[in-house]
Structures are given as C-alpha cells and as structure tokens.
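User: These chains co-purify. Model them together.
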Amino acid sequence: MAALYEGFTLCGLVQTQNASDSPIQGIELDGDSDHAVVTDSTRSVTLYKVSDQKPLGSWTVKQGQLLTCPAVFNFQTKEYVVVSDNKVIRVWKDEDLNLDKAFKATVTADVWRVHSAPGGEPVVLFQRGAVRFLDSLLSAPQQPVEDVLSEEEVIRWSTNIVAEEQHFVLFTTEQKGECCLYVQRLNPNTLQKYRLEREDSGASPLSFSASLQDKHLNLLYLYPNGCVYQSVVAARGYVGLEGVQALPRSLRLMVPVGEGELGAASAVALDEAHVAVVGVPHPSARTGKDFLCIWNTNFQTLQAGKEMAGRIHGQVWCYLGKLFVSHGKALSVIPYECQKSSLASALGKLRHTGLAGNAALPHGTSTGRISIKCNCSQRNVKLGVNCVQPQPHQTGPVDEVQREVEALVSRGDAQDLQLSVGQLACHLVARSQAETAFYTPVALAQLVQTQFLCHSVCPGLLLLSLEHKDYFLCQLCLQLFPDIPEVVTCACLKTFISNEVLQTPYSDNFLLPHLKDLDTQQVILFLQYLQFVYLKYSQDVYTQTPGLRSPTMTQIIDWVCLLLDAHFTVLVMAPDAKGLLSNLQSFVKSQVKLFSELGKIESSLQELHKMKLSKDISQYSIEVIELF
Amino acid sequence: MGEFKVHRVRFFDYMPTAIRAMAFNAHTERLALGRMDGSVEIFNFADRYFQEKVIPGKDSRSIEALCWVGGRLFSAGLNGEITEYDLETLRPKYSLEAYGGPIWTITSNSQGAHLAIGCEDGTVKLFEVLEESIQFERNLDRQKGRIISLSWHPSGTQIAAGMMDMIRVFDVPTGRAVQRLLVDRGFGGSKSRETVVWSVVFLSDCTIISGDSAGKVQVWDGHTGTLVKTHLVTKWDVLALSVSKDESSVVVGTSEGTVIQFQFIAPTLQQQQDKEWVRTRTFKNHTHDVRALAEIETAIVSGGMDTQLVVRPLLEKFDERSHASALRKIQFPHRNLVFCAKKAGLLLFQFPGQLELWRLGESDGHGKPGDSLPLKRKPEKLLHLKRKGEDHICCSALSSCGGWLAYSTMSSVRLYRLQTDNNDISISKVPKLPKILRSAHQLCFSSDSSKLFAASSQSSVLVIALSQSECKYVHTLKPKSGSRQPIHLMTNSVDGKWLATANSDCEIHVYNVQKLKLHCIVPVYGSCPSAMGIHPTTNNLTMVHADQQIFEYSIVEKQYTDWSRKLQKQGLHNLWLDRDTPVTHVTFNPKNPEQILLHDMHMFCIIDQSLPLPDQKTQFYNQMTLRSLSEQERPSHLHAFKICKTFQDLLSVSLLDDQSLVMVERPLLAITCQLPAPVRQKKFAT
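Assistant: Joint model of the two components:
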C-alpha cells in the first residue's frame, strides 16, 4: 500500500509572463536532508528548510541576467553551482551573500545543465551533448567543447546517476519527432545512444525519470496518452557496441487519461512497484487533470490520490519520502509512504526479492503479471459494454441482467473484458445501492470470477455483498481481490470469520486502527478461532495440501499478534478472556521452547555440515609438501 | 627449497594418563606431577616449564598425593605406602607400608620436620622426617571414617582433617580432636549420600576452608568451629584446593573442569578492614575433573582427568606481555616416544606397557605439492612387544638398520635382534646382557649398529659392543664434572666417532667413542637442552634449549661455529622465542648439509644455514608469502627459518634416507575422544 499524507506549501510561486512556462527550474538537495535548493525560472536561487517551510538564504543575479539551469550543490566542496546566461558558471558558498561577487567563469559553449549527486563530482552537460567534470572545466574554462549532437537535435531532459563508483549522465534528445537516449558513462568515458520506440500517435514523452536498480538503469517515461513505459539499460556492458541501438520498452502502467490527452503531466518512479503521476485525472473523480496519484505498477492499482489546487505545471520531484509539486501559485511538499505491496506480503513476506527482480527483467520476458498489462494496454480501445444493445443492466429486471452478464462473460474475448466487466460491475453495484430491491448475486459472482475485477475498480462491491449478507460473494471477493482496504477487511471480520479473511493482503500499520473497532466479544471469538486453526494446522503441518486454501502458520500468528496488539489492555481487563489468554500463553511458551530446541539442533547440525567440509585425514597418507 | 614426500602418520595411539596430584616447590621452582599410572614428572618452572625428569610408573604404585620436604619428594597412595623418590636416579628411594590401609593424603608441616598422612582406617599418622628416611612417630586420635584430606596449621600445632560429612581439627601435641565441623549434605537425591570433604586448607588466622562432594566451598572459623560462609560453586564435586603463599587467595578445582578463585578482600572500598572470602574469577581450561591444583606466585597450575597440565597466568601480576604471561597447556611429553630406523623405514612407538614396530607404507608415482599420493602398500604393524614385569618402559631405541631393538624399565634392560625378510619378521631376545647393564635413562645405537650406548646413573654412559654372537660390555664413559643428575638426551655421530650427552644440570658432554674418553664439555648454558644432534658431515653439534635458543658447536674445534655466533649476535626472532612448546628433535639432511630439521608440537622447521637470518622486522612465518611470489621475486624474501605448520600435534619428525619425511601426529582430538565422558556435557549450541 502507499499513502499520500497531508502536504504543506513550501513557497509561493511567481507567475511568469508565459503561462505555459513553469515558474520553477529545479529543486535540488544540499548536504542537509531537510534542505531544498529551489531555482526559479528567472533570477533567484532559494535555500529552504523544508520541515520549517522557511527560507534559509536566497541569491539573485543582476537584473538583465537570467539563470539558465537549476542550482546544484557540490557535495564534495560544499558549494553551490549555477549557470547564468547559458555560459557563465557561478560557484558560491553558503556564507556568500552576493552572487555577483562570487566566483564565475565563462565557458565557450552553452550549458544545458549542471548535475551533482552525493558521492560524485559535479558534471556539466552542454547543450550540444558534450560532458565535462566541473572541476576540469573550471580549471580551463576556455577549453573547446565538441558537438556530440547533430544540428537539429535538442536535449529534452537529463539526469545523472552515481552509484558504486559508477557515474552516468543520461539525457534524452528529440529530433523531428524521434527521441533518443544517450548514456554517457564517466571514468572511463563511453557514450551509447539508444533510439526510443516511436509511439503510434507520434507524440513525444511528456516526462522522464531514471533510477538505478539491480545494476540496471531504469528509464520511465510518460506519454500524453497515459502510457508509462519502462526501458532498461544494463549499467555495465554493451560498451563495445557501436552506433545507435533500439531501446526496447515495456508498458508499466496505463494511466486513465479521461478526455483528451495529457498536457502537463509527469511521472516519477518511487520504488520498484510505485509510480507517482502528477497532472492526471483521478479515475473515480471528475475529469479534471489536476491530481497527484500513486499507482502500483505491479497490480495496476491506484494506491492514493490527491487533488492539487490550481494549474499543474507537470513538474514533480521526489526526494527522501517527499514529493515536491508545483501547482497554481504554490510549491507543495507532500510526504508519501510506499509499503511493499500487500499481495506480496500475503504471498509470503520473502517474495519481495522475486518481485524486485521481475521489475528489472528486460522487455518481453513474460511474468505472471503480464496478462493484466496486456489488458490494460487495450483499455483505450473503445469496445466493451457500449456495443451491447440495449443495456438491461441499467433498468431491466434481475434475470435480464443475468442474461446480459452471461453473454458478456461467455464471449470469452479477454481483450476487452477487463474494461467492460469493471464498468458493468460498477453499474450493478450503483444500481443495487440505489434500488434496495435490486440485487444480482449470481451475476456479480460471475463477474468476480472472471478475475478481471479488483477492489479499486469497483469499491462498493464487497460492502454491498456484506450488506446483503451474501457470504459466498464475500468469500469470492476476499479470495480474488488483491487490494482490499484494511477497513473493509475488518468490516468482514465483524460479520463473519473465515479462512479467507486471514488470507487477504493487509498492512499492519493500516489494519491496526481498524482492528480496534472490534468489540471484546468479537476479539475473543476471533482469537479462539485463530488458536483453533493454529492448533489444527500445527498438528498436521505436513499433511497440509497446497491446493486447499488455508492460511499459513505465519499468517495466523501475524493475526494473533495484531489482535493482541490492538486489544491487549481490554483483554487483560475482560474476565472471560482470562482463560483464553493463559491458554494462549502456555501454548506459546511450549512453542517457544520447541523452537529454541529446534534452533539448537539446527546449529549443531550446521556444525556437522561444516565438519564434513574439513579434509578427512586418515590414519596414514603420503603427501607432497613444498617449502620455499 | 624444494619438495618433500611426507609420510603422515597418525596411527600412534599415544594416550597420556590423567593427572592425579601435584606439588609445587616454591624454593626450587619445581612442580612435581603425579599421574594415574604412578609416574611422576618434574617440571622446571624457572626454565619455561621444561619437563626435566620423568620417573616411570609401576603397575602396583598409585599416587594420591605428593609432598615436598625441602628438595625431597614424597608420595602416598591407595596401595598404603609412602614413597620417597630419588630424583637423581629417577626411581623410588624406598617405600614404606603405613599400616593404615589406603592412604588418601600426605602433607608436611611448614617446618619440614613431620609428615602427616590420612588413612582409610580413620587414623592420621605422623612420621618424623629423618636425614635419609622417615620414621613413624604416632597416631592422632583415631576417628570413625576415612581421612580424605589434611592440612597443617602453619604453626604446626594443629591439623585439620577432611572426612566424611565432617572436618576434624586435631591438636598435634596431644593428638586429641578439638573441633568437629559438620558438613552439610547436598540437596535432593544426594541428601542420602555422604559428603566427602575432598580438600581442606588451614590458614594462619585459624580459618579453615573446605571443598566437598556437594559442590560447596565453605569457610569456617577454626577457633570456634563455626561456619562463616558457604559458597555453592558447582552441582558436582569440589575436588582440589590450593592457597597462595600470602594466604590472600584460594583456588578450587571442580568436576566440571572449572577453576574458581576466591580472594580475601574487603567487599567495599570503605571498609578495608572487614575482609571476607569473595568468589572472584572462574577459569575453564579443562573438560574434566580438576584433580590437582597449585597457586604459585604468578599463575594457577591445574591438571586433572583430561591429562593436560595448564598454567594459567594471573595477568595482574604481569606488567607486560611475554611468553610468561601466556596461557600454557602442556599436552605432550618433552621427550621422544617415537624412534625411526632411517635406512629400514621402520617406526618404533614407545608406550608405558609395550612397544610397537611399524613398517611405513609406500606409494608410487609423484604428485604436485598438496597432493596425497595413492598408496601402493599400506603401513603394517610388525611387532607388538609387551614389557615384562610391572615397571613401565622408561626408554627404548631402534637401530637405524632396523636390526636391533632395546628398551629399559627401572629394573631391567632388554635387547632384541630383529630380522625382517620381506613380509616375515623374527625377533629374538639377546640373552646374557652384561650384568652392569641393569637399567638406563636413555638408550641409543651407533649408526653402524655395532654399539649400544646406555645412559646410566650419575650421568655415565655404558658402551656395549654388539655382534651377531654376543654382546659385550666395553667401557663406562664418565663425566668429569661429577654430576649426579640423569642424562635425558643422548646422540651420536654418523661416523661413529662422537657421542654427546645432556643431563638435567644442563651439562653437555662430548665423548670420543673410538678413544673411549671425554672429548670436551660444551659451555654450560642456563637453560636445559631439549634436543640436540650431530651433523653427519661437519660433526657440528646443534643444540636447542628449553628457552628456544639454538647453538651450534664445532666438536672438532671445540668452539661455537661462526653461524652460531652470528645467530647469537643478531638474536632469534621474537616469534621464534615466544613459541610455547620446546623443540624435541634435531636432525639433518645428508644430501643438503646446509639444512637442519627440527620440530616442536605445533610446527616443523628447516633451517637453511646458507640463507640470511631473519631480523625482528622480517616476516618470520613467510611460507605463504613466498608461495604467492614469482620465482624472480622469491630470493629477495628468503630467510633461514622455513616453517611449516601444516602438520599439528607433532610427536616426531624424521628424515628417511630416501629423503622422505616422516611426520608422526597425534591429534589432540583423538586423545580427547578416548577420555571418559565429562560430568558436564556441552549441550548442543549452548
């Protein structure tokens, strides 16, 4: 799960003359994790203490001069670096008050960006594609700078990545609608050029974001049609390759775009599984494209959304658990949290590494998730229920609806089922909520069984089934939905206890507050049940058949812990819980003893294992030794 | 330097016996150690704990306790006898039946005038120590129940006696029991079992400290007979107690293998006057019963069932780190139990009760360094020769041709003729040995097997001529010094001309065997030689001492060689000097006269005299480094000491005539495996 927390305004923004221009050039970190260096689009650089929303210092160039690249912090010399009027590099320290009196050097070619990252020397990227270390450039500012790019090729975006003694400068260019990625490795210097696959519409990406994961450079880019693609370049290797390589891509996410295409939007990867997108509509809200959303790319689910007041400039920066978004007349800081996706934890908490590896797989490798991706990619194809004429689900009686659903499901045309099933389910749920007499359990169950539904597609479904005490449907949902919110899980718990509830994915932090809503009797009953299940399984742990849907021991124990956490004081006070708790305690004690004994056996067996490795020397051997 | 084929021998089932008793003589700094098999060992604590003398055991002898009176050593045992030892002839001087049944303990008063023994029949017997013997004086009041432990009050007027369930205090002049201290039994199931007071000490202030089978250390007021304090230290027995000379510290040994120290200190800084006995430290260096214990000036010495002697230094008594401040474990004897017939490829193993003769195996083909070669023939045990009589074997010898074998006990010498043709071996005892050849401290054959040398009393050597038909006494070589000490090392030259002997006075005599007279005396060095050998071509005598110093002495020129002077001038490397086991064998490589081969328990070393000596800055253990260098770089890194630690727990290293090495290892683990199960088993993973 991921969440966006209450944000705050870091600073106001000055409107520029040209409304399409962003009022901010860039936000960079300096040595302090709570500092942000904000460069506006004209003349000033301001250093903020983020948590205090307070400026610590501000530097401005003279009237008539213009900052042409965001200021960066040189982590090695503790100095700030900025470029004004494309060619003048300025370097100053925290204590310098006047930027004009600071060191400056004029170089021979126009600078695109200066990049700096902790652990690496700052590098200067020229508009024509050449790259220099800042130090060596400043030691000979008038040195000639070569052209790397062709005449009409312009840089659209650049970044640098420093990791494990490797230093990369990545930049993308555009030339007659063709986009290219350049990967410049430093020390030793090699340059590799990749051609991005062309989008059908011919549009260019709106935004790029790059990260280093598992020794691979991951490039994530967003197109106006809402497609977020990922391309992977190995951090090592391919050095010998000449010429331009085609860069394979894989679709990571289809962001619903609503009406029209995206304008000012931007996507940034938060971790292996989460992407923050700004300047998009919320799928379940109105069509305005002024939302900041976090999507889970593994499950294609929306995890959190937040409306940003005012026009979004399509800029988002992500530093240390905070998103910086410029919108309207403000720069907002929104803390976020991404937890490992709950299905992963439900599958067993150790699966994480597998999923991470999955993200780094090159394009075309099929994984368990790929089918969903395909379905997503078809979402913009306007098919589905709109073709079904007439539409009984809007007004018709139950049996007609049933027929319609059967017809839809039996079509078996998986290509467009995804969207139509979701829409149909939403409609049915909405109608059921509106008309108390209307409820189509069979149809809903069929829809759920297509496995194209998830909770975020049709949030009302599970609650509806609870309302109607349709436990069969509830079970189905619990079984098949990967993304049931903790509050709903608890609601289910209150109504009935099942194997299924225990297996729903959850996150401790989110579940705990909702668990507190349970009353004592429910808790005791639940605990009794958990104990029963645990005893049952611990007795026949080996006979447990994998096909049977039963919770694992770990899941049961996790739930016991959570319940006790949430209700411990209450349980201690409740007289009827006493027996249960002492039972539980003695049971746990015996288990702990058992496991500690097992631990001992393990280590001694390990010793045996080690001993076997040592050379077995017999009573007599003839060997050859050499002395030097 | 080169490759060597190594016979790695692990089939010598050497098994030391458990330590039963010890007594430390602070005046001479000698520790006497009594083992279960009745043997007594003398360690010189002033000379790197060198095992100076060994008095071989005897089947009927048992040692429960040892006691020094001045320089005289007494033991008493369950055979009911008191024995005084002759430390010059390494045999009991006399044994005296005490007529009190088995004797559990023996102790002398601080004046050295009387011995007290505790007997099974409940008597404490006093013996007067006379010039040449001891004489029974009287019994103290006879008690019901055996007397297990005794301790004299330093004044000599009272004796505390540990018994079953109680401690008695006797007034010595009257012989009356004046106090009866009742010792509690253990708890639970052991309530029904009598508590054995295994050990008591009687301090100057009349405090009595006892250790018993219920795991308690108890402090008593000897004036009033009241219990002051009980420390429960173990679930099993507290077996041994020893008090420091200044009576400020007491150490106890338990069945768990721990040694626990109690100190007489003030519990708080404010009340320095109110001192009490406080448990302070626990040492765990043993796996089994700690049966014998001595707290000496700077260390705690302990021994027990696990057969090793442990010297645990008290670090607060040292200002700087040195060999003396390091923990010492003495596991192997400091003398040879393995003899190798270099020409015949035979090995002789000496056990207290028997000799074993083995033929080494053979391999064919060659291999790279690190390889094990396939065996063409397995090693073969040719002979298992049991000794006659109840005296244990004290020394043995095998001629290099493999044709002669000799061994000696305290009472007799036996010589055998061996004949091996291919797979058959025949052994015949040589009858009618010269009468004069009654026993020997050391035996060795000349390299041509024509003579047998036997180290006899007062550092003399008997020369016996051997031939097919007879064996004839030739001569007795006597040292000029008149030393009465026994010879513990003897070696002769390959050319048959020279014989060198070393005795416990650190004297080394070189005799001319052809002229049958003393040739020279090597200048006496302060540390006892632990190994020596005569070079086959130069006839230089190489000696290694207990303090790890190496000397080379030219027998012909009667002076130290230039190399030896250079070595002494430059000094040996600290890492060499800090080794904690003595070199027990020196041999040479006839094919390469520059090489001296020697070994201790933990390493095997070839000294190449043609190479520069290492100084303190040189990397001393450099074989790994040299291995990693290229052939061009290597020469600049070479130094004279080539040390190989591949082989551990070494009992013997010798070089056969075919240039292959024989390394006899006795892994300590194998010894441990044969010990009885300890009372406290280490649990899995605890």
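Chain B has a mean pLDDT of 92.
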